[in-house]
Amino acid sequence: MAIIEVNSHQIQFNEKNYLNLKSLIPKLQKEFPFDEYKIQDFLINGQHIDINSEDPNLIRPIEANDHIQISFNQSTSLLSDILTDLTHLTDKILYKIVDCSENFKNNNDEIALVQLTTIVDAVDIFIQSINHASSKIINHSEISDYLPIKKLQIHLLSLMKAISSAQYKKDYIMLTDLLEYELKDNLTQWKILVLPTLKLELQKNSTYIL
Question: Which one of 38, 46, 58, 100 is most buried, by most CB atoms within 10 A?
Answer without folding.
Answer: 100
